[in-house]
Amino acid sequence: MQEPEEKKIALELLETEQAYVNRLHLLDQVFYTELMKEAKNGKTVPEEVVKMIFSNISSIYQFHAKFFLPELQKRMEDWTCNPRIGDVIQKLAPFLKMYGEYIKNFNRAVELINVWSEKSPPFQELIADIQKRKVCANLTLQHHMLEPVQRIPRYELLLKDYVQKLPPKSPDRDDAEKALEMIFMVAKYSNASIAEMERLQNLWAVYQRLGLEDDIVDPSNELIKEGPIQKISIRNNSTSEKYLFLFNNMLLYCVPKVIQVGAEFQVHLRIDVDGMKVRELNDTQFPHTFLVSGKQRTLELQAR
């Protein structure tokens, strides 16, 4: 007799989970443990750096090795009398939020490996030595570290497939559908964590270009658009190069600094979006011009 399709997928989930736990063991019990041991002896890099590279990999490893994998194994052994995995995955789903921290930290971790490999030859040698072992299968530390980042999308795909293949009256249908919904929410959560991290990094880079002025630095701001602009001087009928940053709550009118040490721009004027008016002008001498007026001042500007 041929195995039912849903059982094949449940078995694939178990097999990939076993391989995944081996990969987590390698990251936590081999790379992290050995690098930490050398860091404690003061031979390679500061302990803090090793901790930052591996983030919360130990918690992730413990969870999969001690809880999720044994639960799945038990289920597959009892499959003939109890063909279901949906309830086990429902128990797993909330814990997958732990991945948010690991995923958010991933790019920084890879950067730290590269930076410290250049700074500390013993650190690089130890990593190279571990990578030569059979268990690494000729793959780099960075490659192995990518595995947890890809695991949640993998669960989502397998479970989606599992739900589709379940017979309509399967005792696992309700649980499996609920589990899929929960996994989908967790995937969304980790994607949102990455997006939020990127937004803050980009925002911080903009604040640095503006010289980190106290009244401007606010993590809740959103940069909408930035770019060069010409300021029209009606008095002497000329234009000069300026730069605008439009945030959700303010428009910053800036002057590019000639000597770019530290900040790239100097903020000349801040106009609050609340109460700001923008009006297009039909000026034949200066095309593409518009007026921006705030509570204190009005600017006549020309776009490219």
TrEMBL record:
One of its GO terms (molecular function) is zinc ion binding. Residues 5-193 form the DH domain. The keyword Manganese does not apply. Residues 222-304 form the PH domain. InterPro entries: DBL_dom_sf, DH_dom, FYVE_RhoGEF_PH, PH-like_dom_sf, PH_domain, SOS1_NGEF_PH. Its main location: cytoplasm. It is found in: Cytoplasm, Cytoskeleton. Keywords: Cytoplasm, Cytoskeleton, Metal-binding, Phosphoprotein, Repeat, Zinc, Zinc-finger. GO terms for cellular component: cytoplasm; cytoskeleton. GO terms for biological process: cytoskeleton organization; filopodium assembly. CDD domains: RhoGEF. This is FGD2 protein.
